[in-house]
Amino acid sequence: MSMEPRYAELASELLARAIPEPPSPLAEDRMLAIRAVERAMRQKARRRLAVRVAGLAAVAASVAFYFVSQKPTKPIAVAPAPPAAVAEIVRGSAVTIRGGDELPLSATVPVTPGDRVVARHASNARIKLSTGSTLLIEEEGDVAIVEQASNQVFSLAVGAMRADVAKLAQGERFVIRTPDAELEARGTSFRVARVRGGASCEGGLTTKLSVYEGRVVARAHEREVNVGPGEDWTAECETKGAARGAPPRPAAPADAPPEPPARLAPPNRGLQPINDLFAEAMDAKSKGDKARALSALQRLETLYPASPLAESATVERMKLLSSTNPKAAAAVAKRYLAHYPDGFARDVAEGIVAKSP
């Protein structure tokens, strides 16, 4: 066998051992690649941040430009709080009627819409608003607070009242309503009375206005009349063929006394107005008009507490209330038992109290 191939292999092995194997480039290349990727990521992040900051700056600039370019807007109007009102006795005796109950007047307890202030015989009461306006209720006057907000609305059922109205703000109104007229004033002084009218007047009463200062708009029968200082106006009762909206009457002489208001019980009429009130209540009851019946009965009790029909009025009122307002009925029944311990309706009153919640 020839030895040449064997020697060739040995020579190759010796040469391989003598020449060192070059280092593998794989690890170094990998590190370089990683570093390159890191640099690229950092550069990309910086570019994204720069773009985001630029975008936010652009948005802020747009918002600032919008607000700067807009015209100043008016402040939002906030509705004023309703003017508070309190009622006080000027002389004699007067009460507040609230929810069927009689309450004493107090300068610290406000009167609110739905309340009525009633001045008894030979008495006066005053309603004072936080706006500075005042209403003087003359004897046997019955005034209800209808609304207390931007519209200050009151109603006069019977008697008379004087209003001294403070200057109103824009959008405010001051209105007195009666069964046949509406009177609106702005910063003025005037008197409203329910006076005796002709046979064609509803209930025999009509409304008379006397203006002392400023001007008052009087509305009746779908017509308006402006009444100035020193002038009187009367809501003429409508008759067949009569013209509507009578002009103001000539001013009365300066030394002439004011026309007395229509009272529910003038001395020369005796029991007639009391009987009329009771008859009105019974008529309303028979027609199912409980609200009108209760109103008439309560006016009778309030204005004529010592009359022969006062007890009957109380009994009828507690009976009507027992079906609509048991709590109020119980309160009336308790007062009945206190005032009439041996009254003819004692059993009825005790039964209402026993069933009260």
Give the key terms.
357 residues; alpha+beta; Jelly Rolls; Serine Threonine Protein Phosphatase 5, Tetratricopeptide repeat; 9-stranded mixed sheet; 7-stranded antiparallel sheet; 35% helix; 25% strand; elongated
**Which shape, going by the Cα principal axes?**
elongated
Helix share, percent: 25-40%
Question: In order across it, which strands form the biggest sheet?
Answer: 3-2-4-7-8-10-11-14-15
| CATH architecture level-2 label of the domain at 85-234 | Sandwich
Order of helices and strands: HHEEEEEEEEEEEEEEEEHHHHH
Q: Calculate the mean pLDDT score and round it.
A: 77
Major beta sheet summary: 9 strands, mixed
Sheet/helix structural class: alpha+beta
Quickly count the helices: 7
Q: In angstroms, what separates the terminal alpha carbons?
A: 135 Å
CATH class of the domain at 85-234: Mainly Beta
Could you explain the architecture of this structure?
- The structure is a single chain.
- With 357 residues, the chain is an alpha+beta fold.
- Among the domains are: 85-234, Jelly Rolls (Sandwich); 267-355, Serine Threonine Protein Phosphatase 5, Tetratricopeptide repeat.
- It is 35% helix and 25% strand.
- It contains seven helices and 16 strands.
- It has helices spanning 4-18, 26-69, 272-286, 290-303, 310-322, 326-339, 346-355; strands at residues 85-91, 94-98, 101-104, 116-119, 124-129, 134-137, 142-148, 151-158, 160-164, 173-178, 181-185, 189-196, 205-213, 216-220, 223-227, 232-234.
- The strands form two sheets. It has a nine-stranded mixed sheet. A seven-stranded antiparallel sheet has the order 1-5-6-9-12-13-16, with no helix packed on it.
- The longest helix is centred in the first third of the chain and has 44 residues, at 26-69.
